User: What shape does this take?
Amino acid sequence: MTAQLNWALLSTARITRALIPPLQSSERNVLRAVASRDLATAEAFAAKNAIPQAYGSYEALLADPAIDVIYVPLPNHLHAEWSIKALRAGKHVLCEKPLALTLGEVDAMTAAAHQSGKVLMEAFMYRHNAQTLKIEALVASGAIGQVRLIRGAFSFTLQSDVNVRLVRAYGGGSLWDVGCYPVSYSRLLAGAPVVEAYGQQVCGRGGVDEIFAGTLRFANGVLAQFDCGFALPGRAFMEIIGSEGTLTIPEPYKPAPVNRVTLTRGGDTETIEISGGELYAGEVENLADAILLGAEPRVSLADSRANVAALLALYRSAESGAPIGL
Assistant: This one.
């Protein structure tokens, strides 16, 4: 008999809807409960999404001994607090990106995971997709030679002026929200740690960065350039440029069920088709592997800490006007 993990959603935030299909179709993962600060809201959400149990407080959910895994999709400034509470309550945790807003918070979360013996993983779902795994394999095989330069972007137009993304105290800003993706992707493929960050920002509503552009320098000489924003058209791409060729990924962060990337080398361009499957299923199953089989999470806590460190350095650079060493 396949071991099963009982999951619960710590909020009715919109992003939770993305986890419902893979959880409800999985053999090893079962969606059992949802919590809100308002019981009526939780009950309505549970009824609409065929979730058996609803709780009117986060504390009540964490007290349920039947729940094994908590998904934390709260605003950025609450990630550390509620992930730590969940770990101390004996739950495994999948926490939305960014894992936290300070290195101190990351370290406290890591300590809580170690002390509880539970698994904590940051929900960078793109890292588990077949497209990303294929790009990693192509780079590792030398398909473009030695990686030299990485370029990426992630932007959209945020129409509403009332949004947690625009609240500075909540960890708002385009770099925290979407810029973290090209930063993470660049770090994944660069093959060395970030040693210097340089950023520039345009702040707007709520005092948060609505446009951010940055450069990362890695220990092996690889450079990465990216931009992100809330006040730009919808754009998403990654380009990995090597000594002998280029990989272009038109939809790197939320790949379609069937993805097409291009490999250009020696004047020839090849289109590579990749079947990606359910977008969020990979992170759900990878966490199950870590919990049930003792496998290493694909997004380690050390990886998450390094990503937060890079983001913080970019913000410090933008504020100071100078490059920041890591």
